[in-house]
54S ribosomal protein L23, mitochondrial (Spiromyces aspiralis), 65 residues
Amino acid sequence: MLEKKPEKVIEKAVSGMLPKNRLRKQRLERLLVFPSSEHPYAANIYKQYDTKIPLPAQPILDKTN
């Protein structure tokens, strides 16, 4: 299934996680799955987080004193 239609794997997984009611079909129709890393909405993504840089630890200040 991964070789023939990789987008169907994601659709089936999402379908299994949705509640089994009458809205399920409508929600699945709105789901957009792109099999490659290229998609038409790349310009809408404005933030990319670099997870390789660790964030500095912030001290917890006790405000009860």
